[in-house]
């Protein structure tokens, strides 16, 4: 069967309810679901974790025309004694430790029920590698569907970068976990009909892992949420979820190694650490000129008062929404090369690059002492951010899914990479 002549039926399988949307991952998930809901007949299967806003998500989908009957929630408590045996079997079969909960029998049973009652679907969209563990079952139950994995990160690459930076006792575990994740990632991306990547850098890595067809669907930004300030502020800002280890590592490095070098010169500005779930180590940094906010309704007011954002990230994959949000807000970005990986940012034009604490300090001094440089970086970054508006990215994703072939087996796909923005 070639292109569908009617509205396509899509099932999106999510590892969480993406509300509250207070992480880069949930923001991407929410915007891609919005794009799918506005263009296709959409069902959503989502894991309901503690702290998720299922009622809010149900209302949000309803406003997009997706009735509550097409939202299928799977309650996933952190501890599931009744599933200990199946989880142990999955672990012994080689499932990575942090992926075991996504193999639970309850999830598989709900998936089978949804497929039986609502299928078949034209496209099944797996959000994150974790959910792609259902891919073989999807192929069995709905062999004609076009199966897609949205890889927010290249998960194995993320672990490879974290291991050497972690405490020595953790490194053997992370290397062991890396081997399991890489094996799972190879299996899943090679079986999928299409894989979505955040950047060309990630796309190349996914092709090397065996992905047959890769579409670059970048992370984006909601431009109306960010209005550049007429005048630069005083604060130095870091935005990010503090329960993600690379962010915590970056904040500790920023506070302990960079901020002491420039804090007196940036007075009366403060170092603002903005993001949910700060650890005890991050909370311990607080003083009158170093503020840890925890969760906030919006990062925009904090960026509006910023001189710059500093991002000494040493591990990660995908692309960083914190960079795009700062750019949209017209805030100069000082970052490691890894922090802006996959984004078309040019040193001295859109960003100031730094690796060592001294390089970060020197760049921040330049910004404090050169208003023209601040203005130029802010204007160029805002212009770049405008090319990453979610509306355009969503429209392009819709075109990809509208043109995706739907045929039994799906084993004759052309190999290639397609970039959308």
From TrEMBL:
Domain Glycosyltransferase subfamily 4-like N-terminal as annotated: residue spans: 23-220
The lineage's top-level taxon is: Bacteria
For this protein, the record's Gene3D superfamilies field holds: Glycogen Phosphorylase B
Against PANTHER family, the record matches this protein to: GLYCOSYL TRANSFERASE GROUP 1, GLYCOSYLTRANSFERASE
User: What name appears for this protein in its UniProt entry?
Assistant: Glycosyltransferase
Q: Tell me which species this is from.
A: Corallococcus praedator
């Amino acid at each position: 069967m070639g292109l569908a002549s009617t509205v396509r039926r899509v099932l999106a399988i999510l590892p969480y309810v993406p509300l509250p949307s207070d992480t880069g991952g949930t923001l991407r998930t929410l915007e891609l679901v919005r794009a799918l809901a506005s263009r296709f007949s959409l069902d959503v299967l989502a894991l309901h974790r503690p702290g998720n806003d299922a009622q809010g998500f149900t209302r949000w989908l309803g406003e997009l025309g997706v009735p509550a009957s097409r939202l299928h929630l799977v309650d996933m408590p952190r501890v599931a004694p009744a599933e200990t045996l199946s989880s142990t079997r999955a672990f012994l079969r080689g499932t990575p430790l942090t992926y075991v909960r996504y193999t639970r029998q309850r999830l598989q049973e709900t998936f089978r029920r949804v497929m039986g009652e609502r299928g078949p679907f034209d496209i099944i969209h797996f959000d994150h590698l974790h959910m792609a563990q259902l891919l073989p079952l999807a192929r069995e139950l709905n062999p004609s569907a076009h199966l897609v994995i949205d890889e927010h990160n290249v998960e194995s690459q993320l672990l490879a970068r974290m291991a050497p930076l972690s405490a020595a006792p953790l490194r053997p575990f992370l290397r062991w976990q890396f081997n399991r994740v890489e094996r799972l990632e190879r299996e899943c991306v090679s079986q999928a009909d299409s894989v979505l990547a955040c950047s060309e850098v990630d796309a190349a890595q996914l092709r090397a892992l065996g992905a047959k067809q890769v579409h670059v669907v970048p992370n984006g930004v909601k431009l109306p949420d960010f209005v550049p300030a007429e005048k630069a502020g005083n604060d130095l800002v870091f935005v990010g979820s503090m329960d993600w280890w690379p962010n915590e590592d970056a904040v500790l490095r920023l506070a302990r190694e960079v901020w002491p070098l420039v804090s007196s010169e940036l007075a009366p500005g403060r170092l603002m650490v903005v993001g949910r779930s700060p650890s005890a180590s991050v909370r311990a940094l607080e003083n009158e000129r170093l503020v840890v906010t925890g969760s906030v309704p919006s990062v925009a007011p904090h960026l509006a008062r910023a001189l710059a954002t500093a991002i000494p990230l040493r591990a990660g994959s995908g692309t960083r929404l914190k960079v795009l949000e700062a750019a949209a807000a017209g805030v100069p970005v000082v970052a490691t090369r890894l922090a802006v990986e996959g984004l078309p940012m040019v040193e001295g034009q859109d960003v100031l690059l730094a690796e060592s604490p001294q390089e970060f300090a020197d760049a921040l001094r330049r910004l404090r002492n050169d208003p023209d440089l601040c203005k130029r970086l802010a204007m160029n970054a805002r212009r770049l951010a405008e090319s990453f508006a979610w509306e355009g990215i969503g429209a392009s994703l819709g075109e990809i899914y509208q043109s995706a072939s739907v045929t039994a087996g799906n084993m004759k796909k052309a190999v290639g990479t397609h970039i959308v923005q």
